């Protein structure tokens, strides 16, 4: 009788221990499975662009001088560069839109390279002006002594607003793609989960041209058009 009682008591203790272990380790009990549909998403890339007409032009003007000594070449170059700067300011270029971009001085050697026979100095300035005045600015710089002209680099003054418009187009394009994918897969398109901006604005100029100056008038500058592009990656929920 005592042996039966001990056996019964031991069995009860084992059952209680098993129950406690099941509470302490929920993974041993029932498990809940999240429906696969809760994790469904559709991710697409949207592209947008805005076309604008450039309204600003940037140029670089340079002057080159020679001298028997380094100081003579540099002094002559300083005078020539100042003449160009004065002419640009006189043509209406604001000080904030005029910048010296380089100054250089190099020795010139004889044909056999054994003797310095003089020095060459060079300097350049860059300007940014409204495109309607670009031709007159080039003429003024050349007449003042600029012997090198580089440009134009054309852009629009309100890049941020144009890029924002391109982003809106890109988001709209992404939704169109996502809707088409959802329909094809027999899904219902849900809310936006994430939006990631893609590339930075990349201006592309079409039809811009600058011709060499001549005695008949100002340099013609054709603005053409400029594409501001934007890309976004959008993830939608789907059910």
* Average of per-residue pLDDT values: 81
Which architecture of the largest domain would the CATH scheme give at its second level? Answer: 2-Layer Sandwich
Question: How many β-strand runs?
Answer: 10
| Anisotropy-based shape | elongated
Number of domains: 3
Descriptive account of the structure:
- There is one protein chain.
- The model is unreliable at 17-36 and 199-216 (pLDDT under 50).
- Strands 1, 6, 7 and 10 form a 4-stranded antiparallel sheet that branches.
- By secondary structure, the chain is of the alpha+beta class.
- The two termini are 65 Å apart.
- The longest helix is centred in the C-terminal third of the chain and has 27 residues, at 159-185.
- It folds into 3 domains: 2-32; 38-53 and 159-238, Translation Initiation Factor IF3, CATH 3.30.110; 56-153, Protein of unknown function (DUF541), domain 2 (Alpha-Beta Plaits, 2-Layer Sandwich).
- The protein has helices at residues 2-24, 70-90, 134-143, 159-185, and strands spanning 41-52, 56-67, 98-109, 116-130, 148-155, 189-197, 204-206, 209-210, 221-222, 225-238.
């Amino acid at each position: 009788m005592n042996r039966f009682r001990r056996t019964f008591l031991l069995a009860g203790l084992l059952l209680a221990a098993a129950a406690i272990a099941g509470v302490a380790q929920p993974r041993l009990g029932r498990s809940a499975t999240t429906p696969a549909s809760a994790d469904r998403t559709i991710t697409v890339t949207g592209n947008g662009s805005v076309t604008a007409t450039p309204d600003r032009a940037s140029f670089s003007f340079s002057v080159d001088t020679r001298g028997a000594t380094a100081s003579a070449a540099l002094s002559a170059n300083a005078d020539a560069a100042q003449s160009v700067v004065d002419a640009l300011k006189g043509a209406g270029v604001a000080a904030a839109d005029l910048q010296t971009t380089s100054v250089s001085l190099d020795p010139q050697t004889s044909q056999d390279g054994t003797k310095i026979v003089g020095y060459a100095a060079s300097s350049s300035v860059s300007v940014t002006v409204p495109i309607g005045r670009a031709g007159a600015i080039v003429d003024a710089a050349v007449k003042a002594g600029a012997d090198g002209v580089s440009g134009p680099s054309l852009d629009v003054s309100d890049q941020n607003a144009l890029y924002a418009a391109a982003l809106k187009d890109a988001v709209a394009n992404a939704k169109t793609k996502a809707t088409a994918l959802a329909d094809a897969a027999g899904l219902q398109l849900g809310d936006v989960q994430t939006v990631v901006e893609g590339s930075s604005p990349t201006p592309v100029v079409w039809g811009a041209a600058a011709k060499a100056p001549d005695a008949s008038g100002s340099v013609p500058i054709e603005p053409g058009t400029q594409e501001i592009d934007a890309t976004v990656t959008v993830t939608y929920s789907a059910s």
